[in-house]
Design brief:
Blueprint: E1 4-5, E2 21-22, H1 24-35, H2 48-57, E3 63-66, H3 73-80, E4 84-89, H4 92-104, E5 109-113, E6 126-132, H5 139-152, E7 153-164, H6 168-171, H7 185-191, E8 196-208, E9 214-225
Parallel strand pairs: 3-4, 3-6, 4-5, 6-7
Antiparallel strand pairs: 1-2, 7-9, 8-9
Length: about 230
Amino acid sequence: MILRMISSVDSKNNQVHQSKPMGFADATQFWNQRFDKEEFIFGKEPNEYLVEQATKYLTPQQKVLCIADGEGRNGVWLAKQGMKVVGFDASDIALAKAKQFAKDNQVVVDYSFSDTDSFHWHINAYDAVIGIFIQFADPAMRSRIFKQVHQTLKPGGIFILQGYTPKQLEYKTGGPSLIEHLYTEDMIRDLANEFKILDLSVYEKELSEGARHTGMSALLGLVAKK
């Protein structure tokens, strides 16, 4: 069984409410309950940091992987920019919404039902990998993800990551409530030691990303090159 530590949180592009090991099936059930509503719980607009950095570093026709893409707001936006997008998520309900969202926007995204441990991380396969609020990951899983991302990127490939910092515990406008699931600058520098860091920003900003990511937020953004 694939195990993951699930933290107590109030949002997903990837966050959760319990603090116990959870298998893939349990995670699917949890997130399906979250996503089983008509609304897009993180909105339909792409993440602002992703848009800003993708405009600088990514180009049409590149092959891009979106980790835990949820209802598809980021993957669909990348596809609309002319990129060849692959995405996965542990919620089949979220994926159904994402696939319909892609169809409504007249783009194709190659979605699969998976989590980070069961996904097939092909070697040197992608021009870019995107991880937006993937803070379901405990420290051990987070370390695996960075290694998997490095493996699957082509030489010169770009990793774009956004997450919350510990100060987010004061704002409570989204994200995990366990500090070990949050990002610090030193932590991310250490995890990205095999990459060349192009941008590492710690900042505060008002977010408006659906009902679950709204309000002043303590954020970290990373752009790293293999």
